Amino acid sequence: MDDDISLPADTLAILNEFLLERSKREAEEDSQITNKTGKDAHFEEDWQLSQFWYSTETKHTLRDVVRKLLAERTKDSDDFSIALLSCPSLYKDIRDLHDTVHIFEFDQRFEAYGTDFVHYDLNCVGSNPDYLKEHHHQYDLIVADPPFLSQECIAKTCEIITRLQRNQKESKVILCSGEVVEPWLTARLPVLKCSFRPEHERNLGNEFVSYANFNLDEYIENK
């Protein structure tokens, strides 16, 4: 019979504290999901899903870019559709500006956002050309933040972006990711690296940058 495994008292105390905090956080989150729906629901990052929320400044910067893009389309802004791919922390600020916003996410907690939520599994993109077919060629602006800094992830993200664009020449694309993905990304989409550097609530080890198929920096510099 194996001996019982015991942890040092200080290690056990740290573990118990972590488990207690996690339990409280999950209980608060469940309560928020139960009592709040739509854009008022709040969620903690899930690091296992590579979720890292943007800083308030970054969220407001991108929100203001969207505001300017909408202002340029004063006559037909109601027909302007926005897709947010794997960047759920942007949703509330963008949704406050515009009604036609869909959040594409693997994490089903975001079903709390109702019909704005689209369950999105990146692994289905390459194997099925009809995946999310009802959303193909529907979006005028796509903001994406691929969950992983791998060539495969970037390739699949580029593929779904191309499918979602209403018009490949006119639809705007903003992509926030690591500097390391630039050669994979620019080989698949007509985007260039911008000066704008997104920031997160928690400091990440990788250098994060932005890419776009239009002059994103011009929209930011003229705030």
Automatic annotation (TrEMBL):
It comes from the Eukaryota. Coiled coil: none annotated. Its EC number is 2.1.1.-. GO terms for cellular component: cytoplasm. Its main location: cytoplasm. Keywords: Cytoplasm, Methyltransferase, Transferase. It is an enzyme of class 2 (transferase). One of its GO terms (molecular function) is nucleic acid binding. GO terms for biological process: methylation. It is found in: Cytoplasm. S-adenosyl-L-methionine-dependent protein-lysine N-methyltransferase that methylates elongation factor 1-alpha. HAMAP family: Methyltr_EFM5. Belongs to the class I-like SAM-binding methyltransferase superfamily. EFM5 family. This is Protein-lysine N-methyltransferase Dyak_GE18947. It comes from Drosophila yakuba (Fruit fly).
